[in-house]
Amino acid sequence: MYRNLAVNNKEEYRIRVLGVHDIRKIQQLCDSCSDYYHLERNSSASLFEGHQIIHQLPQHKDFYDKYVLGVFDQRMELVSIVDLVTNYPNKKEWMLNLMLVAPQSRGKGLGRLVHQSILDWGKDIGARSLHVSVVKQNKKGLNFWNKLGYKKNRECISVINCNRNELVYMSQKI
Predict the structure, then answer these.
(1) Which domains, from first to last, does the chain contain?
(2) What is the DSSP letter of 47?
(3) What is residue 2's predicted lDDT score, i.e. its pLDDT?
(4) What is the pLDDT of residue 164?
């Protein structure tokens, strides 16, 4: 089931929950967002990125708490994804693990629109806050989340596949 998203009062996007049948589309989007993966890992998206986005969960969480949302343009091409875990790290708190926007769809207000949709949904079902973690060298990402009202909670070091990153954890009350 799709939900319409409008930019400047004009319906331009549709959003829906993605599943295993969408892994190929997710992988294509990840491949097109190589700038993000080079910042995070100093390499391209892995061959299994789409699969990992659908299946990867934090410890002690199950798939009832995870939503991978896809945003489609008017041609029904996937132009953005959001990986979201509800009630994590605590009850009524949500962790936005990943938001990718295709390069050709950036700078048009889509990220803000999707974020507002998530805030509205969270508010409707009782979420109290949203959390994100941003790779510190991702200056555009930090700026984006700051403009949306997120506040820095802490910084830490993350090592994934031998890649060391400084992460900035940020939160926003809903």
Answers:
(1) 3-173 (3.40.630.30)
(2) T
(3) 58
(4) 72
DSSP string across 49-96:
HHHHHHH---TT--GGGEEEEEEE-TT--EEEEEEEESS-SSTTEEEE
Under 8 Å between Cβ of 88 and 97: no
Query: What parts of the chain have a pLDDT lower than 50?
Result: none
Say how many C-beta atoms besides its own lie within 10 A of residue 161's C-beta. 7
Encode pLDDT of 68-86 as tens digits: 999 999 899 999 999 999 9
Give counts: helices (H), strands (E), the chain: 5, 8
Q: What is the dihedral of CA 125, 21, 133, 153, to 10 degrees?
A: 20
Closest CA to 111 of 103, 120, 100: 100
User: How far does CA 144 lie from the centroid of its chain?
Assistant: 12
Bond prior to 58 in cis (omega within 30° of 0): no
Please state whether the predicted TM-score (pTM) of the whole model is above 0.85: yes
Per DSSP, what are the bridge partners of residue 79?
Answer: none
